[in-house]
Amino acid sequence: MIKKLLHTRYRVSDLEKTVSFYRDVLGLEEVRRHTSGRGSQLVFLKAPGSDEEIELCKFDESGPVVVGPDLTHLAFEVDNIEEFAKQTAAKGYPLSDGPHPNGRGGAIAFIDAPEGYEIELIQRGKDR
What is the pTM of this model? Predict the structure, then answer.
């Protein structure tokens, strides 16, 4: 029986640029890094207040990383989308879509991470 979700893996070509995005732009914490038995370079990160981790994997032997449009995304809660958008744009990562009111007093927006993975930002409404 499944007990809980532990991590989600994203394979990337430029590991350090991607780690920098998640750490320095989104504010995630780098938890650990190591090289797997098969030679994959792995970095694990997590958001404050979350137990689940994101595993970033660089394994060139698997071929080029191709991220299809609208294939997958990660979603993070933010306190204020407008303020978050100003901070990320100043670091070279403007919103790619939104913000859009979600009909519950909050809003959603999207930002593109290196490698083409999409990140959803959710500002919860006060009436949630």
Answer: 0.88
Give the number of C-alpha atoms closer than 13 A to the C-alpha of residue 109, restricted to the C-beta side.
20
Note whether 90 and 24 are within 8 A (CB).
Answer: no
Interval 52-107: pLDDT, tens: 999 999 999 999 998 888 888 999 999 999 999 999 999 999 999 999 998 778 99
Check whether domain 70-128 has CATH 2.40.50.100, yes or no: no
Structure tokens at 119: 């990140």
Spell out the domain ranges in the chain: 1-60, 70-128
Q: Which of 64-75 are b and which e, b meaning 16 or more Cβ less than 10 Å from the residue's Cβ?
A: ebebeeeeeebe
Residue-wise over 78-87: b if at least 16 C-beta within 10 A, else e?
beebeebbee
Rg of the chain over all Cα atoms, to the nearest angstrom: 16
**Given 3.10.180.10, 2.30.33.40, 3.40.1010.20, 2.60.40.10, which CATH number is that of 1-60?**
3.10.180.10
